[in-house]
Amino acid sequence: MADTTNTAKAPKTSFVKGLKAEFKKIIWPNQETVAKQSATVMVVTILLGAVIALLDYLIKSGLNVILFLGQG
């Protein structure tokens, strides 16, 4: 096999300089966008919690019916 090692190394920039360069590329959302997205997350979370609670109630009720009918 051929020797694949590269003896010429690229100049390394410091970690902090690279971090600053990447940080400048971030596009921060405005306050209105953050508020809309936060409200959406809260509404979806509440709705999903309600759906899970309803399913839990229905499954629990169904199991109670099955278990109590089996005893009688």
Tag the structure with descriptive keywords.
single chain, 72 residues, mainly alpha, 2 helices, 71% helix, 0% strand
Shape: elongated
**N- to C-terminal distance:** 80 Å
Structural class: mainly alpha
Number of helices: 2
- Which value, in Å, is the CA radius of gyration? 29 Å
Strand content: under 5%
Helix content: over 70%
Mean pLDDT: 87
Q: Element order, helices and strands? A: HH
Largest sheet: none
- Which regions have little confidence, pLDDT < 50, spanning 5+ residues? none
The total beta strand count reads 0
How does this model look, in words?
- The protein is mainly α.
- It has a domain of 41 residues.
- Helix content is 71%, strand content 0%.
- It has two helices and no strands.
- The longest helix is centred in the C-terminal third of the chain and has 41 residues.
Secondary structure layout:
Elements: H1 15-24, H2 31-71
Short structural description:
With 72 residues, this protein is mainly alpha-helical. The protein has 2 helices and no strands.
